[in-house]
């Protein structure tokens, strides 16, 4: 079965759409939405705090998970009075799904790569909110992975034009 797919370019759009879709869980890919590739510890910590502040305004949201295939970890993760916050480093997306299985539904994965984040969403039965900022300077590795994702997207997701409003 194909999953829902939407392409969005800003965090505001992602959070607005998650609220409209009554998300109970959002899984965020860390790079580049939370912190860009190869940035400092401070950039990661500030990015997490920014996203957590913003997600606390999404009605009904219960879990915010930050997931990255890299080894980088935050100094601390504090969701405050908002949704429960979880951080998964070395997540092995999309192969490993066990850490996400008990999250409340409906859920959405937000990420820049169909081949990792999108496949994870599809395997979990979640929607995929494809984050594609127009201003990003994408390194060669993620850019190449993005081309691979373009090839598999039609196999996993309903056509983009059917999902846009």
Describe this structure in words.
The protein has helices spanning 11-20, 41-55, 114-124, 140-156, 160-163; strands spanning 5-8, 25-29, 63-67, 84-88, 107-111, 127-131. The protein is an alpha/beta fold. The protein has one domain (5-163): Rossmann fold (3-Layer(aba) Sandwich). The protein has a six-stranded parallel beta sheet with strand order 1-6-5-2-3-4, sandwiched between helices. The longest helix is centred in the C-terminal third of the chain and has 17 residues, at 140-156. The model is unreliable at 161-165 (pLDDT under 50).
What would a concise description of this structure say?
With 165 residues, this protein is an alpha/beta fold. It has five helices and six strands.
Question: Biggest β-sheet, characterized?
Answer: 6 strands, parallel
| DSSP E strands, number | 6
Could you give the order of the helices and strands? Answer: EHEHEEEHEHH
Identify the overall geometry.
Answer: globular
The domain tally reads 1
Which range does the strand content fall in?
15-25%
| Uncertain residue segments | 161-165
Helix content: 25-40%
- Radius of gyration of CA atoms, rounded to a whole number: 15 Å
